[in-house]
Amino acid sequence: MLAVGEKIEWLVDHGFATELLHMLIGESDYADQDAFERLDIHSSLLRGMAIQHLEFLIDHGNRTDAVAVNGRIVSPYPEYFAAWKLAGCPGISLVQLDRLIAGKPALVRSL
Fold first, then answer.
1. Does residue 68 sit in helix, strand or coil?
2. How far apart are CA 45 and CA 81, in angstroms?
3. Which element (helix H / strand E) includes 63?
4. What is the DSSP string of 11-45?
5. Which of 58, 60, 77, 109 sits CB 3.0–4.6 Å from 53 for a disulfide?
6. Which contiguous run of DSSP H or E holds residue 69?
7. By the 8 A CB rule, do 54 and 89 touch?
8. What is the Cα–Cα distance from 78 to 38, expressed in whole angstroms?
9. Which residues touch 96 (CB under 8 Å, ≥6 apart)?
């Protein structure tokens, strides 16, 4: 059985970064709004950096360099994303993550 961080990494690697982002920002049926409210300041900051990293991945792929977008510089944050996973993926409920995976039969077979 995979740990939550391993499931997250697998989902990102297999094109489900958008679904994870929607979970983290509360725009998914699988989002856990109560979990957001229970986050301490450090977990909330890690969640925010994970959101920024996923947004970068979705918009720019696996680039490792910063990108200029409309006069702003945006960067990936793989080290913060790794720290977020190491902290247990604050803001993502393991139960909800498993529901997301179970709702996608192709994922269940692949994991």
1. strand
2. 11
3. none
4. HHHTT-HHHHHHHHHT-STT--HHHHHH--HHHHH
5. 77
6. strand 67-69
7. no
8. 24
9. 23, 30, 31, 32
β-pair partners for 67: 74
Q: What is the Cβ-side half-sphere exposure of residue 66, based on CA atoms within 13 angstroms?
A: 6
Which DSSP helix (H) or strand (E) runs through 72?
A: strand 72-74
What pLDDT, in 10s, does the model give residues 28-52? 999 988 888 899 999 999 999 999 9
Contacts of 19 (CB under 8 A, 6+ apart): 11, 28, 30, 100
Reading the block at residue 11, the tokens are 């989902």
